[in-house]
Specification:
The chain has about 750 residues and is of the alpha/beta class. Among the domains are: about 1-90, no CATH class; about 235-455, Alpha-Beta Barrel (Anaerobic Ribonucleotide-triphosphate Reductase Large Chain), CATH 3.20.70.20. It is globular, with a radius of gyration of 27 Å. It starts with 6 loop residues before the first helix and ends in a 13-residue tail after the last strand. The model has no long low-confidence stretch (mean pLDDT about 95). Its EC number is 1.17.4.1.
């Protein structure tokens, strides 16, 4: 029997054989021969799909390179599909970039600005930057995720872009307003992304260059203690969720259940009904039809509603008091943790009553030094004032409820508010009450206050006093690729510029968020691939060497990031609130013990020229984008060396990056790692990060309460700002795609 091999397939098999060798590709050749014999009249597309599945069946710890074989086959199929659409050959799909941009703009798939701010001649020059061979850097799952979820899609939902075009369109979008050497900056941005040295946040990856959506990752609101404020906040949450943002909401100012309203005692229903409302908003307002909204709500541990708040996500009890689609976070002052450690008493108050009786808001204070400060002074005044009603409980009982919820649901997240505010570079302008959906953002916050509503010239005009509504603009370094390539200096310069440009390009549909974004110009440069890098370096996770390496590496990244922002300030001006900040006074550098000639010079330059960005670094979870870049997530250890990545519509086998006979000894599963080593690493890392880190704790579901308590106490004592999920082996958890960068 004669087996017909169509030319495209024969060419593909020859490419694979040349790249991987006859011996390694032998199994695929034999499978292909059997398959083509059974499927007369087959198409190249049918063959590709079958061979991808076969390639993945070979993928295991012994043969991890098969993910690249599957990726090559998938790439060839993508090239053929685009060639048919563009009426060219598979080899020519990348050759006419200017025409590609014009066509997709006319179809309404690209933002018209791309053909307005760039001339045809410029588009042709930009197209020459494309490096098709960099498509071969993708693993199969990375390529599939990028093509399925992030490239521009036609109205029939089929891809209209190829990977290198997505990187180049992002670079063009972010650099469109640059006035000097714009094409060089586009080239640098493209170089950084296409080599997978970095990733941009999911909203930027998905929406840049398209006529819809916004580019920022997530937002944080502070809810005012008024009916108008509560409903206005809900509307803002819905608006931002619609455009793909993850939302953090601080509810600590809202009065508790049983509080008075206009002097009528016991009238308030507390925070729970409003959180239920946010839960419904998250479910009903989805993110561009792709996924439900994601909202995290934070509450102070001294708030009278803390116990029902801690039970919000439990699967038993009164369903009227549950909000299963919301995520919870607890704001913890040092004095509470001291009482937990000492097995002491803790007092719960109504924030409205404290404001009314005491004349101050307890949440507006923090301990300026460890063991002393204004929060504990104000808290003790409340404890000693008989005019205030309160509930007195054992601090350890609250912690028990926290840990019970964490083992059942993974939350609440922990937010150590005193440490966060002590390290706040902009404490001269405000207060940080809570964090975002993924606990890595720490920026000044305040409530937007309703003032009046009236009819003017037959138009209803609402007046509000804007608060600080936090905006997170994220991007992350791929440590597993950028550090071995020794490109951090070059990379961080362009990365900070890209992030800073997001601030000016974004059209945020909530005015106070846009105002806050422009006042602080906050960015969040982060990292992923930490475990990947340790394995490449031959460093064990549970070793002092890993702690010391985290300290030195992140100090270097911090210095380069500060320097890049300072250089941008020289060029474009400092952020509006720089005067009086810890950046200007030098307190930022003193608090971290930065010494040596390089740091002294940088400190002097910052004082003279300013900082372009008021907030600089934040380490996000990076679950999706680390997969695209072929590395390990965030600063987390791996789950397993070989596992299946499961999404809504597929299940794909995956091996950890660069797995071989040498690195295998340094890839230890998260659930078998002593988490105290993770905390020590993060304490070293956190010193150099002005915002926060999405730090997960991985525990067995058989962990004893005392062991989990010891981890929380160690996190607090080590000066961590936050911890993210407690990931138990029995809990399924949601990743925030908005914060993936």
């Amino acid at each position: 029997m004669t087996i017909t091999i169509i030319p495209e397939i024969e060419q593909m098999l020859n490419h694979l054989t040349d790249e991987f060798g006859q011996e390694k590709i032998g199994p695929l050749l034999r499978v292909s021969e059997r398959w083509t014999a059974k499927h007369p009249g087959y198409s190249a597309s049918a063959w590709s799909k079958a061979m991808v599945l076969e390639s993945l069946s070979f993928l295991d710890e012994e043969e991890p390179y098969w993910t690249f074989v599957a990726a090559r086959i998938h790439l060839e199929e993508s090239y053929r599909e685009q060639a048919a659409k563009r009426k060219t050959s598979a080899e020519g799909v990348y050759k006419d970039f200017a025409s590609h941009v014009q066509i997709l703009t006319e179809k309404g798939l690209y933002d018209p600005r791309l053909t307005i701010v760039y001339t045809t001649n410029e588009l042709e020059k930009i197209g020459q930057l494309l490096q098709p061979k960099r498509d071969q850097l993708f693993t199969y799952i990375g390529l599939k995720m990028l093509m399925d979820r992030y490239v521009a899609r036609d109205f029939d939902k089929t891809p209209a872009e190829l990977p290198q075009e997505r990187w180049l369109i992002i670079a063009m979008t972010l650099m469109q307003n640059e006035t000097e050497n714009r094409l060089e900056k586009i080239a640098e941005s493209y170089w950084a992304m296409s080599n997978l040295y970095m990733t941009v946040a999911t909203p930027t990856l998905s929406n840049a260059g398209k006529p819809y959506g916004q580019l920022s990752s997530c937002f944080i609101d502070t809810v005012d203690d008024s009916l108008q404020g509560i409903y206005d906040s809900n509307t803002d949450v819905a608006t931002l969720s619609k455009y793909g943002g993850g939302i953090g909401v601080y509810m600590g100012k809202v009065r508790s259940r049983g509080s008075s309203i206009r002097g009528f005692k016991g009238a308030s229903s507390g925070v729970m009904p409003w959180i239920k409302q946010l839960n419904n908003t998250a479910v009903s307002v989805d993110q561009l039809g792709q996924r439900q909204g994601a909202v995290a709500v934070y509450l102070d541990v001294w708030h009278k509603d803390i116990f029902p708040f801690l039970d919000l996500k439990l699967n038993n009890g009164d369903e009227r008091l549950r909000a299963h689609d919301i995520f919870t976070g607890i704001c913890l002052p040092n004095v509470f943790m001291e009482q937990v450690d000492a097995r002491g008493e803790w007092h719960l108050f109504d924030p409205h009553e404290v404001r009314t009786v005491m004349g101050f808001s307890l949440e507006d204070y923090y301990d300026e030094k460890r063991g002393q400060g204004s929060f504990r002074t104000k808290y003790e005044q409340c404890v000693n004032d008989d005019r205030l009603s309160r509930e007195t409980v054992q601090a350890i009982d609250i912690m028990k409820r926290i840990m019970r919820s964490q083992l059942e649901t993974g939350v609440p997240f922990m937010f150590y508010r005193d440490e966060v505010n002590r390290r706040n570079a902009n404490k001269h302008e405000g207060m940080i009450y809570s964090s975002n959906l993924c606990t890595e953002i720490a920026q000044n916050m305040s409530a937007t206050e309703f003032e009046s509503i009236q009819l003017e010239d037959d138009v209803i005009v609402t007046r509000k006093k804007p608060g600080d509504f936090v905006v997170c603009n994220l991007s992350s370094i791929n440590l597993g690729r950028a550090v071995p390539a020794d490109v951090l200096d070059r990379l961080i310069k362009i990365q900070v510029r890209m992030l800073d440009n997001v601030i000016d390009l974004n059209m945020i549909p909530v005015p106070q968020a846009e105002r806050t974004n422009s006042r602080y110009r906050g960015i969040g440069l982060g990292t992923f691939g930490w475990h990947h890098l340790l394995a490449l370096k031959g460093v064990r996770w549970e070793a002092n060497e890993a702690v010391e390496y985290a300290d030195s590496l992140y100090e270097n990244i911090a210095r380069l990031t500060i320097e890049a922002s300072m250089e941008l300030a020289k060029e474009k001006g400092a952020y509006p609130l720089f005067a009086g900040s810890d950046w200007e006074t030098g307190a930022y550098f003193d608090a971290r013990g930065y010494e040596g000639l390089e740091w002294k010079e940088l400190r002097a330059n910052v004082r003279e020229h300013g900082m372009r960005n008021g907030y600089l670094m934040a380490v996000a979870p990076n679950s999706s984008t680390s997969i695209i870049a072929g590395s390990t997530a965030s600063i987390d250890p791996i789950f397993q060396k070989s596992y299946s990545e499961e999404k809504k519509d597929y299940k794909i086998p995956v091996t950890v990056p660069d797995l071989n006979s040498e690195t295998t000894w340094y890839y230890k599963s998260a659930y078998f790692i002593d988490q105290q080593w993770t905390l020590r690493q993060n304490a070293a890392r956190q010193r150099h990060i002005d915002q926060g880190v999405s730090l997960n704790l991985y525990v067995q579901n058989t962990i004893k309460a005392k062991e989990l308590l010891d981890l929380h106490l160690a996190a607090w004592k080590n000066g961590l700002k936050t911890t993210y999920y407690v990931r138990s082996t029995s809990v399924e958890l949601l990743e925030c795609e908005s914060c993936s960068s």
